[in-house]
Design brief:
The chain has 15 helices and 13 strands. It has a 7-stranded parallel beta sheet with strand order 3-2-1-4-5-6-7, with helices on both faces. The chain folds into 2 domains: 190 residues, Rossmann fold (3-Layer(aba) Sandwich); 180 residues, 3-Layer(aba) Sandwich (Rossmann fold). β5, α3 and β6 form a beta-alpha-beta unit. By secondary structure, the chain is an alpha/beta fold.
Length: 379
């Protein structure tokens, strides 16, 4: 589908965090699906901006000036966003005046206002939204002329429609996806554990992801302690002191916190595990209602049993036919579900197979094709 897209994102590249990988995966998939794609980002960061994906030369990238003063402060972040808003607007306006033909602007909600001027360029503008927004001026101004919104789950669609009076037909619900390499991986546990220097025997529960307050990881130490002697628990993506801080306690000896793994190593960790964990919490609306964790899709493709927090966000993707649910914020229930699963492995292996079949329908390529069809219909 030959659509010319300028994907505008206020993001520092290269970027190994989940939002950076999600953006690059989507760019890769849009280009593979036939879009003529130019990624427009601030001139920040060193190294290959497309590190982590195989672009095959199909993705053009334009890095624009943006003030990068006082990094790590809210003032510095807002200043950078404002300067990028100006540079991206004038860059695209110049492209239009130069006769770039019919094009589409696609952006993403990585901040509160860097996108605000984009509809004024005069091209059809679309936004991908990973969270609902309060009805404040920047989004009210921006969303009124926007042609379409891609929301990662139905709750975000409902909130955005209510808060900004956006017609439901202008909002596409489209969760995140999974890469083909996760579906085609033939790695087995023996080889993966050998490569990672993990014990060849013993049971392993795995969580892959960074440590943030909103993820519901504070119960992991207590849950791990309750299965000491049964299984080792690995968290790949953080530091021990980060988990100790949010859990407000020390870590049991069977809980191992490992630094973030390179993207190519994640497949090894998934293959090495017996059980994969997805957490969530009622104490944070984003965690409970809105997140679309990429790890869930990658877990489903790994053909390993998944234990997940029973939140509306996760239930929007999977059911009890594919995963084992535990009660959010309840370490006793999480530990109990782990024991239950190890006691009936053959039964729960069937759920893992069903999850794998479902993952085949949730690839980045299919997501990109769905988004392109939506863009064409709304442009």
């Amino acid at each position: 589908m030959n659509v010319r897209i300028f994907y505008v994102a206020n993001i520092r590249l290269p970027n190994a965090k989940a939002h950076g990988l999600q953006l690059l995966r989507m760019c890769q998939a849009l280009a593979a699906a036939g879009a003529d794609l130019t990624l427009v980002v601030p001139k920040k960061g060193r190294g290959d901006p497309l590190a982590g994906i195989a672009s095959d030369g199909k993705i053009s990238i334009r890095r624009l000036p943006a003030l990068d003063l006082l990094p790590g402060t809210s003032f510095g972040f807002n200043l950078a966003a404002a300067s990028f808003a100006a540079s991206s607007f004038f860059y695209l306006l110049l492209k239009r005046l130069e006769g770039a033909g019919t094009s589409v602007i696609y952006t993403i909600d990585l901040d509160q206002f860097s996108f605000i001027l984009l509809p004024l360029v005069g091209w059809p503008t679309f936004m991908e939204m990973h969270g609902s927004k309060r009805p404040r001026f920047p989004f009210r101004f921006f969303l009124k002329p926007v042609r379409g919104i891609v929301a990662v789950n139905a709750f975000i669609k409902q909130r955005v429609s209510q808060n900004f009076s956006v017609p439901a037909e202008r909002i596409l619900v489209c969760p995140n996806g999974v890469g083909e390499e996760f579906l085609s991986s033939e790695l087995n546990a023996v080889l993966a554990r050998r490569e990672l220097n993990l014990p060849a025997d013993g049971k392993i529960c795995l969580y892959v992801g960074r440590v943030y307050n909103w993820k519901g990881l504070d119960i992991l130490p207590a849950a791990a302690e309750k299965i000491r002697g049964l299984a080792e628990v690995y968290l790949v993506g953080g530091k021990p002191e980060e988990l100790e801080k949010i859990a407000q306690r020390g870590l049991p000896e069977n809980l191992h916190v490992i630094q973030p793994a390179p993207s190519g190593e994640v497949l090894l960790w998934l293959a090495a595990a017996d059980v994969l964990l997805v957490t969530g919490t009622r104490s944070d609306d984003y965690s409970y209602y809105e997140t679309s964790p990429m790890k869930l899709f990658e877990y489903m493709a790994a053909r390993r049993p998944v234990i997940a927090a029973k939140t509306p966000a996760i239930e929007s993707v999977v059911s009890a036919d594919e995963v084992v649910f535990y009660e959010p914020d309840n370490p006793v229930d999480l530990a109990g579900k782990i024991r239950q699963l190890f006691g009936h492995r053959e039964f729960y292996a069937a759920g893992a197979r069903r999850a794998f079949e479902k993952a085949k329908t949730l690839t980045w390529r299919r997501r990109a094709e769905t988004v392109l069809q939506f863009i064409t219909a709304c442009s």
